[in-house]
Amino acid sequence: MQSTSIEMNNMGNSFKAFRVYIMVNATKGLVISSDIPMVQFIINYNSSLPASQRFILHVLDNTHLFVLPNVGEMIRSAISEFRDQNSYEKPA
Amino acid sequence: MPQVKIIAKNFMDMVASLPALKLDKLYDNTFICEAVLRSLPALAKKYVLQLLFIDVTVTGKSLEEWLLQDGFSKHRVAVDRLVQLRVFLESVDRKKDSSYRLNPKFQINLQKYLVHGGVLPREPMPSSITVRLPTLEELDAYALEQWECFLLQLISSSQAERPTSFSSSMMKIFQRGLLSQREKEAPRLTVNGFQFLLLDTNAQLWYIIREYISNSEDRGVDPADLISFLLELSFHVTGEAYNVNTLTDIQRSTIKDLADLGLVKLQQGRKESWFIPTKLVTNLSVSLSDSSSRKQGFVVVETNFRTYAYSTSKLHCEILRLFSRVEYQLPNLIVGAITKENLYTAFENGITSEQIISFLQQNAHPRVAEKTPSVPENVTDQIRLWEADLNRVEITPSHFYDEFPSRDVFESSCDYARDNGGLLWEDSKKMLLVVKAEIHMQMREYLRSQK
């Protein structure tokens, strides 16, 4: 997981040592927005992967997920594979 | 997905983009004035007719007096179009008020047209010389055959039965927007190519003509001459023979190309040769005014997703293959089925469900065309559902913020993100925030400026 911390050290006057730190953690990634069954599918797909390849960082609610960047294509191909399993092509 | 509007309006835009001198020369021809009039939006037509017999300039204010309250935007569109085409000549006085009058040449010609009717520069030839004149049905069949052969060659040169006499460089120019040529691969249709195929014949015709005229300068032909010739042709009578020696040299070389497209038919007598305009070219002027003539449809779509196309044309077969599985081809019938797999292929190639549905509706066989709906609702609904199925998941690049030091900072960041339109999700209890990637930099600056 990659995280970038923004550390801000706000020095007002040099004598009055009145420092205020604002440390908010910012993580870069993708928001996946879909319907509930599809989100469940993605969560299931995530659990089926070995721990080093899992991509879900946070489950925001039952229609939104926050995942690692660059996994968009992987998710889309997993979804189309799933979709193709439902199709039957009559042999020519 | 790019939406390309390939309609006659583009042709008129091309006319409007000619330099002022050439445009005024064009208005010498009565038929061009009539064609331009037909292509105008409805309000503009009304203005032209109302000012037709008025010789003085009319102020813009008095034009606006004719309007109801909510017509102002249409009024602006109409007036802008008229000024663009130099039908209205605008003069601005010291108070910056504009007043208009009709272009005098345009005015005189249109008045003549109203009073005398259009007089063609050539008379049809007497029937004693023109033997073997084709009947109207034969002419229609010829035109259709030529046009389809041309289209087939346009999309895949291997499929056409006989090559047209268009040089390969001309064909390349026509194909430019429609096909993508990759090395070592057969040329594939682009998104625009697919949309082009599913269009009305008139729209396709206008597109090809526009490309033809745009390239005429490279071949040394003046586009204004070509435009005036084509528009003149569209006012001729279908099925009548006109002598070729009434044409100028440029027009003579153009007429050969037009014969290849199926717009005219060339015939040779013993001493003279003549050309016969077909329905395709006379429809050009009709289709300017947005009322299209419905040709007979040929497709029946059943509620079990099977399609029956009563056609022998290879082009129709190719078009149906774009989005359905063609199962049998009989001497007068093409049987197919609309399947999910074929539709997915079509969607990947850039065709939308709306285009497929409107193609099926516009080409519905007369037997089903009277019923409403002409294409069964379960078929149209299912096509739209399948298209939606491909877009179930939306992915947005974004940033996730947590570990806010205080609730105030969290609240103010939320408001800042919301004001900038970048807030995607927030959780007040746990103080978590997700914003779009585009405003991440701004958020950083904002947080930095917080004390």
TrEMBL record, chain A:
SUPFAM superfamilies: TFB5-like. The keyword Transmembrane helix does not apply. GO terms for biological process: nucleotide-excision repair, preincision complex assembly; transcription initiation at RNA polymerase II promoter. GO terms for cellular component: transcription factor TFIIH core complex; transcription factor TFIIH holo complex. Its main location: nucleus. Pfam families: Tfb5. Belongs to the TFB5 family. In NER, TFIIH acts by opening DNA around the lesion to allow the excision of the damaged oligonucleotide and its replacement by a new DNA fragment. In transcription, TFIIH has an essential role in transcription initiation. When the pre-initiation complex (PIC) has been established, TFIIH is required for promoter opening and promoter escape. This is General transcription and DNA repair factor IIH subunit TFB5.
From TrEMBL, chain B:
It comes from the Eukaryota. Keywords: DNA damage, DNA repair, Nucleus, Transcription, Transcription regulation. Pfam families: Tfb2, Tfb2_C. It is found in: Nucleus. InterPro entries: Tfb2_C, TFIIH_p52/Tfb2. Residues 381-448 form the Transcription factor Tfb2 C-terminal domain. The keyword Kinase does not apply. GO terms for molecular function: ATPase activator activity; double-stranded DNA binding. The keyword Translocase does not apply. NCBIfam families: tfb2. Component of the general transcription and DNA repair factor IIH (TFIIH) core complex which is involved in general and transcription-coupled nucleotide excision repair (NER) of damaged DNA. Belongs to the TFB2 family. PANTHER family: GENERAL TRANSCRIPTION FACTOR IIH SUBUNIT 4, TFIIH, POLYPEPTIDE 4. This is RNA polymerase II transcription factor B subunit 2.
